[in-house]
Amino acid sequence: MKLDLTDLRILNALQQNGKLTMKELAGSMGLSITPVYERIKYLEKQKYIKKYVALVDRKKIGKEILAFASVTLTSHQRPMIEQFEKEVLPLKEVMECYHMAGVMDYLLKVCVDDMDAYQRFVVNKLAVMENIAQVHSWFILDDIKTDTSVPIHIPD
Amino acid sequence: MKLDLTDLRILNALQQNGKLTMKELAGSMGLSITPVYERIKYLEKQKYIKKYVALVDRKKIGKEILAFASVTLTSHQRPMIEQFEKEVLPLKEVMECYHMAGVMDYLLKVCVDDMDAYQRFVVNKLAVMENIAQVHSWFILDDIKTDTSVPIHIPD
DNA sequence: TCTCAATAAAGAAAATTTTTCTGTTAAATG
DNA sequence: CATTTAACAGAAAAATTTTCTTTATTGAGA
């Protein structure tokens, strides 16, 4: 039920490098393959590990624009909220979408080819939604750090 | 040099599921294992694929707080910029950090256990930096969409 | 048109990894 | 002190990755 130090070390290693072999992991932590194998299967089954993915370099495939878009809705009624969230999910330009506390309702991370595509996205995909009040955009000049790994504190 | 349709389909498949086997990929695209293998190796070598990672469920390991922090510096002189970026990188609470265009200088995605930890992070790690002028925080109520996959348009 | 070279893909064998299975050790419990 | 259970080790089996050899296909130039 509760993760021990070994589990946390495995999680941490795999979120840095998902291609580590059982052998490599076992070696680095002074165990045989079996316990490492069984722990990984447990972490996967219990969904501590949500999935494994390849991270693609967006600029190398021509996605020059990464931006955050804040969205404010006209109404915070339950059906409005649900409608917006349902419509945002299938938009592939939207890599991330968060329901926010405070001045904005949603914050979206948007990835597109160029400014032209961004403009089309906002005008044709966001602004057409029924209950959108405001959209503000902030553009990223440079990626300083882009980690997918959740901070895991390993006591030693 | 330029990626063709098959390369894009492989990239797209692997950024959804990094554990797909060559056999599965080959089968789904009507090819044998060899061309799939060679294309993947090419995509890795050329860094179209930056890395493979396991995605960990932050809440399941007790990270209840995910927030964005905007940072404004007191000065935009080159050395100040570089100093800030150098100091942010090793902070493991900071999963992402972007240099922004416009009103804020940096936007950080921060992940910690609880509000207490967030407060300590801002006060002890951010506010102690030499050239920080302002820090504003926005807290996430709910994750609506959290994709790591770059939108890839596959013509068909 | 023919030949040659280059590219892409197929198929099979070798190497490595994952997965399963069996047995051992150690800790904990009654 | 005996017994049960959990964690681990080691080896065998199954599957996957990697390498190697061969076959088509295409395009350029003689």
TrEMBL record, chains A, B:
SMART domains linked: HTH_ASNC
Coiled-coil intervals, chain numbering: none
Entries under InterPro entries matching the protein: ArsR-like_HTH, AsnC-type_HTH_dom, Dimeric_a/b-barrel, Tscrpt_reg_AsnC-like, Tscrpt_reg_AsnC/Lrp_C, WH-like_DNA-bd_sf, WH_DNA-bd_sf
Top-level taxon of origin: Bacteria
Classification via Pfam families: AsnC_trans_reg (PF01037), HTH_24 (PF13412)
Keyword Transcription: yes
Keywords for this protein: DNA-binding, Transcription, Transcription regulation
Gene3D superfamilies: 3.30.70.920, Winged helix-like DNA-binding domain superfamily/Winged helix DNA-binding domain (1.10.10.10)
SUPFAM superfamilies with a match to the protein in the record: Dimeric alpha+beta barrel, Winged helix' DNA-binding domain
PROSITE patterns on file: HTH_ASNC_2
Domain HTH asnC-type: 3-64
The protein's name: Lrp/AsnC family transcriptional regulator
Lineage, uppermost ranks: Bacteria, Pseudomonadati, Bacteroidota, Cytophagia, Cytophagales
